[in-house]
């Protein structure tokens, strides 16, 4: 697939399963909000929104080691260096396990300090404690590991198997949510337990998959392959850092928006929580389209097949932009029914549909920025992806939130997101054009 298959077929074979798994991941992330919303308690819906930044940080860790590791693995395979590919996988897996375990324990230990900072109040504090205990303290390792292993499996060209594992966890969570929330009467704690169990099952799937392919795969759990030599830690961490930073800055961004919204009402917090969950569809489309093609780009870059690499980028861009545009139109026109499906509270619905229409309008911009970031990451670039990641989340939207809140009010907080996405896309194009020209001169 990396060397000989027609470019269009190769791109679609890698991208479509990744896109589907990303969309299912978003749906299962939305499932907690949807099923909790059926309880009719804005405090519990607000809790999911308040805890989301801390949970999303786990995705940042998965991307740090998963995207950084998969980029170096695909480049190592492009030069036929299987030993380095094994060492990269072992370093990425075991370091991620240790870091995610430490994060889960530390967060629960300082929850009384952290939760008020992110906007928890008397109505949401106890709910937040229950949610982070199951999803993060207990569930940190499987949450990080199943996403990271999907990246590493995809680096070897097994996009369908990687996507099945991610989808498995998502579908299972959707099935378990109503059982734990309603049938067992656990409400928000039930949603958290369902998320944790689904991530454990997905992780076990990947472990069994890799064990079954042990004679043909370069993904290694064996401690003998763990090393700090060969510049592996540097390459993995620096290449994966932009994606991790995007999640970290996304955490800060969500904390800021929740904190500012909490100054209005819990219904406003719940409304932005629903809108943000729904808008994850746009981000999932952009992420699936870009991350799916990463191994193909990295492999052909290392093999000096720049013509094939450029062709893959062209096909992926056209496909990504078209799907993002369709998604934006759908989210904008159907905002009211979508938000109402989550919670039948008039004030929350009023906020949510207004917020969703504002946030979703720059969906195509996100697809351009994400493809630029991933293309640069796949060839081992560090500085440009980092700049774009910081700009898209945190670098621009947080200052705009504070400024527009003081000038316009609650709607101004939300407008900061599309403004930041538009600015990031402009800078992405500026940084990507010289890279593209260099490829053209070499092909």
Structure description:
- With 443 residues, this protein is mainly alpha-helical.
- 85% of the residues lie in helices and 0% in strands.
- It has helices at residues 7-37, 42-78, 82-109, 111-118, 125-137, 140-155, 159-183, 187-212, 232-262, 266-302, 306-333, 335-342, 346-359, 363-378, 383-395, 397-407, 410-442.
- Helix 10 (266-302) packs parallel to helix 14, helix 12 packs across helix 13 and helix 16 (397-407) packs antiparallel against helix 17.
- The mean pLDDT is 86.
Share of residues in helices: over 70%
Please tally the β strands and state the result: 0
The ordered H/E elements are HHHHHHHHHHHHHHHHH
C-alpha Rg (nearest Å): 21 Å
Mean pLDDT: 86
Q: Could you say which structural class the secondary elements and strand pairing correspond to?
A: mainly alpha
Large-scale geometry: globular
Measured distance between first and last alpha carbons:
20 Å
Range of strand content: under 5%
**Main beta sheet strand tally, sense and closure:** none
Pick out the low-confidence regions.
Answer: none
What is the overall number of helices?
A: 17
Short structural summary:
The protein is 85% helix and 0% strand. The chain is an all-alpha fold.
Helix-strand blueprint:
Elements: H1 7-37, H2 42-78, H3 82-109, H4 111-118, H5 125-137, H6 140-155, H7 159-183, H8 187-212, H9 232-262, H10 266-302, H11 306-333, H12 335-342, H13 346-359, H14 363-378, H15 383-395, H16 397-407, H17 410-442
Helix pairs in contact: 1-2, 1-7, 1-8, 1-10, 1-11, 2-3, 2-5, 2-6, 2-9, 2-10, 3-5, 3-6, 5-8, 6-7, 6-8, 7-8, 9-10, 9-15, 9-16, 10-11, 10-13, 10-14, 11-14, 12-13, 13-17, 14-15, 14-17, 15-17, 16-17
């Amino acid at each position: 697939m990396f060397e000989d298959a027609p470019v269009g077929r190769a791109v679609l074979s890698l991208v479509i399963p990744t896109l589907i798994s990303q969309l299912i991941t978003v749906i299962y992330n939305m499932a907690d909000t949807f099923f909790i919303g059926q309880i009719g308690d804005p405090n519990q819906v607000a809790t999911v929104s308040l805890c989301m930044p801390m949970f999303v940080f786990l995705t940042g860790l998965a991307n740090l080691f998963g995207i950084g590791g998969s980029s170096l693995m695909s480049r190592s395979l492009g030069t036929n260096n299987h030993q380095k590919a094994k060492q990269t996988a072992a370093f990425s897996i075991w370091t991620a396990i240790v870091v995610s375990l430490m994060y889960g324990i530390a967060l629960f230990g300082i929850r009384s300090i952290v939760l008020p900072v992110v906007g928890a109040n008397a109505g949401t504090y106890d709910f937040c404690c229950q949610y982070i205990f199951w999803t993060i303290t207990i569930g940190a390792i499987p949450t990080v590991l199943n996403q990271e292993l999907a990246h590493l499996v995809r680096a070897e060209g097994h996009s369908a198997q990687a996507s099945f594992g991610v989808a498995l966890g998502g579908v299972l969570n959707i099935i378990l949510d109503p059982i734990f929330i309603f049938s067992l009467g656990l409400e928000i704690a039930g949603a958290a337990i369902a998320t944790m169990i689904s991530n454990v099952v997905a992780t076990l799937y990947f472990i069994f998959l890799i064990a079954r392919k042990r004679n043909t795969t370069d993904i290694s759990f064996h401690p003998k392959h763990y090393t700090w030599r060969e510049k592996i830690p540097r390459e993995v961490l620096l290449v994966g850092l932009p994606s991790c930073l995007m999640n970290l800055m996304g955490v800060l961004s969500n904390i800021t928006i929740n904190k500012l919204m909490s100054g209005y009402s819990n219904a406003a917090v719940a409304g932005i929580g629903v809108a943000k969950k729904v808008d994850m569809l746009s981000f999932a489309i952009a992420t699936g389209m870009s991350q799916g093609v990463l191994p193909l780009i990295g492999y052909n870059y290392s093999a000096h097949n720049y013509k094939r690499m450029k062709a893959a980028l062209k096909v992926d861009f056209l496909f990504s932009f078209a799907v993002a545009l369709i998604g934006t139109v759908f989210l904008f026109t159907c905002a009211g029914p979508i938000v109402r499906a989550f919670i039948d509270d008039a004030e929350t619905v009023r906020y949510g549909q207004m917020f969703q229409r504002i946030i979703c309008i720059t969906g195509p911009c996100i697809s351009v920025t994400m493809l630029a970031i991933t293309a640069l990451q796949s060839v081992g670039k560090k500085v440009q992806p980092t700049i774009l990641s910081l700009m898209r989340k945190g670098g621009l939207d947080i200052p705009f939130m504070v400024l527009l809140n003081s000038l316009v009010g609650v709607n101004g907080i939300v407008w900061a997101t599309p403004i930041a996405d538009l600015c990031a896309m402009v800078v992405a194009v500026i940084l990507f054009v010289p890279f593209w020209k260099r490829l053209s001169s070499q092909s």
